[in-house]
Amino acid sequence: MKNFVFIFLVPYFIFIIESGLMIHLSGIIPNLLILYALFFNVFENSFRKRGLLVAGFCGLFFDVISSYPLGIFSGIFLLLAFILKLILQKYVRIPFFQK
Predict the structure, then answer these.
(1) Per-residue model confidence as pLDDT tens digits over 13-69
(2) Which of 24, 65, 81, 83 is the most exposed place for a label (fewest CB within 10 A)?
(3) What is the CB neighbour count within 10 angstroms for residue 44?
(4) How far is it, in rounded angstroms, from Cα 65 to Cα 84?
(5) CA angle at residue 15 from 2 to 41, to 5 degrees?
(6) Distance between CA 27 and CA 58 in Å, rounded?
(7) What's 70-82 look like in SS3?
(8) Given this model, what pLDDT does residue 24 score?
(9) What is the C-alpha R_g of the chain?
(10) Cα 56 to chain center, whole Å?
(11) pTM here?
(12) d(Cα 42, Cα 27) in Å, to the nearest integer?
C-alpha cells in the first residue's frame, strides 16, 4: 500500500497542485513533478527500479497538461531517471542507504 501511495497518488496530487494552483502564481514556476521524480530516485536504493516507474508516471501526468505530443515528457523523465540511476550506481556510495 505504501508503494502504491508513493508511485501513483503522490504524483497525482502534485499534478493537481501544479496544474490547478501554480498557474495563478506569477513569475518562475518550478516543475514539481520532475523534482519529485528526481528526489525519489536519489533517495531510493540505486538498484531498485521503482524510481523509473515514478518518473514514467510523472512524465505521463506532465504530458497530459502540455501541448507537446504524448510521450515526449515521459521519455525525458525516464531518460533523466535512468541516467541518475546509472550515476548513483557507478559513482556514488552512500553507506546508510545500502542494506
Answers:
(1) 998 988 888 777 777 778 899 999 999 998 888 788 899 999 999 999 889 888 899
(2) 24
(3) 19
(4) 25
(5) 50
(6) 23
(7) CCHHHHHHHHHHH
(8) 79
(9) 14
(10) 7
(11) 0.81
(12) 28
Instruction: Name residue 61's amino acid.
Output: F
Cell of 70: 504524448
Segment 57-60 long-range contacts (CB within 8 Å, at least 24 positions apart): 57/7, 57/8, 57/11, 58/11, 58/14, 58/15, 58/33, 58/34, 59/33
Q: State the residue for C-alpha cell 497530459.
A: 64
CA distance 57 to 7: 8
74 grid coordinates = 515521459
Q: Contact, 40 vs 2, CB < 8 A?
A: no
SS3 for the chain is CHHHHHHHHHHHHHHHHHHHCHHHCCCCCCCHHHHHHHHHHHHCCCCCCHHHHHHHHHHHHHHHHCCCCCCHHHHHHHHHHHHHHHHHHHHCCCCCCCC
Looking at the chain, how many residues does it have?
A: 99
